[in-house]
Fold this sequence. Notes:
Layout: H1 2-18, H2 44-47, H3 49-52, E1 56-59, E2 62-65, E3 70-73, H4 79-89, H5 98-107, E4 109-115, E5 118-128, E6 131-139, H6 148-162, E7 167-171, H7 177-185, E8 195-199
Parallel strand pairs: 6-7
Antiparallel strand pairs: 1-2, 3-4, 4-5, 5-6, 7-8
Helix pairs in contact: 4-5
Amino acid sequence: AEExxxxxxxxxxxxxxxxGDRIEAFRxxxxxxxxxxxxxxxxxxxxxxxxxxxxxAVTGARAAHDGxxxxxxxxxDDVDALLQVDAACFDDFWRYDRPHLExxxxxxxxxxxxxxxxxxxxxxxxxxxxxxxxxxxAVLPGYRGRGVGRLLVTDVVDALQRQGAVQVxxxxxxxxxxxxxxxxxCGLSDVGQHVAFVRFGG
Length: 202
């Protein structure tokens, strides 16, 4: 079941790469489509060095933000908050519904960022056989450009490492300048076109 979900996600990322409102079926060749991959062969701490120079500080299992934003593991009680953040961040094509988020809360790593006024962002990720996948980074529009996205990415990479990931991949649209700038600020290197990797250790 986990492999089926991962394959479906790969099909989704392929559709996202192609752009437009479309649906793409998963094909085994997508796993080997190396021309769309970018790699970064560096230590996790060095990769996150630039992120740690920000106002985010990693403390144990979760991160804290100097501006009063905190990140914690989401629970089943957070579904409504996640739905609200998701609806504010994505259009209908990319938006998750309640059943999807409830399933992800049971089977994946979901972290929720909150500020003084409540939930403001979240991440969704998985790890399987040492491969971590950052599938979602969402930050409310009013909080973008204020270090929240960097805090979330720093947190999720650290969490995936603790879960045994030796590599983390993510996918974003080439035209999403803000997202690509965020990942670069967190130490990820996009030397290809669509996916960035960070590798821990040797």
